[in-house]
Specification:
heterodimer, A: five-stranded antiparallel sheet, 0% helix, globular, B: TIM Barrel, 39% helix
């Protein structure tokens, strides 16, 4: 299945939107590098709608207590309920444990259209 | 169906003005009084302490709009009943002075709660707010509003006071007489001996320790020996700490009963006979782990599901408990235990 979900200019880098792919609710994210990513719009924890959360950054892991290095701004999808962080540029894997991920979909841009595949 | 034992409605201060007499009204209207606040942390989740999708579409804070709550929570999850537990702002019993203002705020809040919530939706039940620092005034408020059919409990914050002290017993006597439970919910800052830990994650991890303080204090100060029909619901501390605490209190009581000769039952029996614990915030667990905890509690009738809507650590009725629980256990957790606990249900 493939589906046009939006025009390129509908999302700026760091923005996301809710859409549908067949019967699925999905969230389409445009990361900081301008590329598009799509995920099932349902947190793997308790099912919260991820599109209601925040596309933001995250403090990088560090060896120094008290050190905050904010990075990946626009690349981290954060759940609206419990705040779990998923890296949109790493297949939607959870920052705290990469073993867990949100289901991701392939995306292409053709002419001016953003198309999601399942 | 669900009886949700922890739902936070929230008042905007200006909504309290019609319910306040002078001079109290002017302290908000003219002097911009706000509840003293302490939390030093920046926003812990995406939208502070609220679910990001629970903010009212017009920009008001989560929990301030009945119709939005009906749509997002009560209708969506097929609630049979929900017990409102306030937003602890204002929290009259947490004020560190000016108890006359606290008493006025409690009365205003109760009247607002009845008008704007309890009278508007038959599924909603309420908590009586009091200024417990002056028990004689708190009792007056319980006498005034305690017979309201939808007020099911008296709310006390878990804070820097331990309410089991006999000084506060008139509150429990009044609650028992009016068929009201006591609901206890942590406020700020309930751990680290009244101080804040350095990080929100420390505070939030250790909230159950503040609940352990209160349960221990209420039992060994003889509250349930003096008021054997009094019910205590511990709200938003979870329940997984309870088996440890029951064993610890029983062992201590076996050795040290001579210090508290007014306590007549084993503490674990008091817990099972007089208390209820809300489930949220649930740790991740498998069915086997949940069943082990229930086995250690010696009862499957002292825990009750709660969502904590609209807060960030909301537990979904569909997804928070482990899957494939037996139907009779689910019925107890989602409805029956709360129904049997509250004298007015």
């Amino acid at each position: 299945m493939e589906q046009k979900v939006c025009h390129k200019e509908d999302l700026q880098p760091g923005e996301m939107m809710e859409s549908t792919l067949g019967k699925h609710s999905i969230v389409v994210c445009r990361a900081s590098d301008g590329h598009y990513y799509a995920f099932l719009n349902r947190c793997i924890h308790q099912g919260a709608p991820l599109s209601k959360g925040k596309l933001c950054g995250a403090p990088a892991p560090t060896d120094n207590v008290g050190e905050y290095n904010f990075e990946k701004d626009g690349d981290i999808l954060r759940c609206p309920w419990h705040g779990r962080e998923f890296d949109v540029k790493n297949e939607g894997r959870m920052l705290v444990n990469e073993k867990y991920k949100v289901k991701n979909f392939s995306v292409s841009v053709e002419n001016n259209d953003v198309i999601v595949y399942n | 169906m669900l009886i949700d034992t922890d739902v936070h409605e929230r008042v905007m201060y200006e909504e309290l003005l019609p319910y306040l007499e002078q001079p109290w009204k002017r302290y908000i209207e003219d002097c911009h009084w706000i509840q003293e606040k302490h939390m030093p942390y920046t926003q812990p989740a995406v939208a502070g302490v609220d679910r990001a999708d629970a903010r009212i579409p017009d920009g008001r804070p989560a929990g301030t709009d009945l119709s939005f709550m009906q749509q997002q929570l009560l209708d969506a999850n097929n609630h049979e009943k929900a017990v409102l537990t306030g937003a602890l702002d204002p929290s009259p019993s947490s004020m560190h002075g000016w108890y006359e203002m606290a008493t006025a705020l409690a009365t205003a809040y109760n009247n607002w709660q009845i008008d704007k919530w309890l009278d508007q939706d038959e599924r909603l039940y309420g908590s009586i707010h009091i200024a417990a620092q002056e028990p004689w005034n708190a009792v007056k408020e319980i006498e005034r509003i305690g017979s309201h059919p939808k007020m099911v409990q008296v709310l006390l914050p878990i804070d820097d006071k331990l309410w089991g002290d006999p000084y506060y017993h008139p509150i429990f006597e009044a609650a028992q007489r009016h068929n009201l439970a006591i609901g206890m919910h942590h406020n700020e800052p309930p751990v680290y001996y009244g101080q804040w830990p350095k990080y929100f994650i420390e505070w939030h991890t250790l909230i159950p320790t503040s609940h352990m303080n209160v349960v221990t204090n209420m039992i060994f100060n003889g509250v349930f020996d003096k008021f054997p029909d009094l019910k205590l619901i511990m709200i938003e501390g979870g329940f997984t700490y309870v088996p440890f605490l029951m064993n610890k209190m029983d062992q201590q009581y076996t050795d040290l009963r001579h210090e508290v000769p007014w306590v007549k039952r084993m503490p674990s029996d008091i817990v099972r006979e007089n208390m209820l614990f809300t489930t949220q915030p649930l740790e991740s667990m498998k069915k086997k782990e949940l069943m082990q905890i229930i086995d250690q509690l010696g009862s499957d009738e002292i825990i009750s599901f709660s969502t904590d809507y609209p807060h960030w650590d909301y537990d979904s009725p569909d997804a928070a408990l482990p899957p494939n629980l037996d139907d009779d256990l689910k019925e107890k957790l989602y409805t029956e235990n709360a129904r049997n606990f509250y004298p007015k249900f």
